[in-house]
Amino acid sequence: MRQPINKLTIEGFKSIRKLEDLRLGSINVLIGANGSGKSNFVSFFSFLADMFEKRLQYAVAKHGGAEAHLYLGSKATDRIVGRTYFGKWGHAFALEPTADERLVFDEETLYYDGEAFRSSSRGHLESVFVEPHEYREAKNISENLYSVISSWVVYHFHDTSDTAKVKRRGAINDNERLRNDAGNLAAFLLRLRNQHKASYRKIRDAVRLIAPFFDDFKLRPIPANEDNIQLEWMQKSSDYPFLAGQLSDGTLRFICLATALLQPEPPSTILIDEPELGLHPYALALFAGLVGGAGERMQIILSTQSAALLDHFDAGDVIIVERKDGESIFNRLSREDLHDWLREYSLGELWEKNVLGGRPNRCPA
Questions:
Q1: Are residues 21 and 117 in the same domain?
Q2: Which domain holds residue 234?
Q3: pLDDT tens-digit profile of 95-132?
């Protein structure tokens, strides 16, 4: 059963001093200038993923320690608070910094149907709840909480360098889910071709629309090592197999995006940071169309700076992110408030004119 996030609270995390009860819909488009806090919002979900997988302390240390995660550091902020509500479930936590640059739980609580379902004691370094066996005891609850929250995925398809994982060989059996960097794209597409033919054809056909020369993927074990696979593709009117490195960066990113949005067994919630990178305007329009269709099957959160992409969404889907006095402020647009403006201008045009807010202030002359 699909369990999208209904509302979210973040306090004391990076540039987000206080974001309380932000309502999230099926499609959510965050737009703001560089440094406004969009990426910090997205990274909060990576932070949650590390927490749910019991690697919080490793992730905190890897990304600069507790000081780097607290809003303006520990002198200004004494704790990070997060609360997420999805379906009838809720998960809340508070983390406090330690002298050795770790974050320790001050509290962690699960909610069900508005009531505290279980609370933990203080002082643990990793989540004590987020394990599948913890929820098998719960009566009259059809969803497994762990399977929902562990399925939230932050996709980063930025790396298309020569050493990008999506271009390298990988294990052919690494195909259960699309990894957040699409490093197992070839293995995942092979499973779709074998087990979910309709979804596979939709992905292939979407790629054909933005790359007319593209015929199909060539998905096969590497002859010298049949436990591995790499991404190959065929060009129309040719029997020569090409490698992923022979695609343009934009085409390869679009393949990753289309696969994420058209996968047959999607996560409850996905986040995509700056999907517009390297995409032609036509590909951007097609991507937006895929988002619209996928929003019926999964919850989607996009972070963008693209006015062209913004034009393809409804005002009610859009959240403006601004940096004011050092903190990130989030405001959802209202179609009613913009009714008169939208008679003459598109959302992208209003963004560029700074009617919506969130644009960088001009330097004084």
A1: yes
A2: 161-266
A3: 999 999 999 999 998 888 878 777 777 888 998 865 54
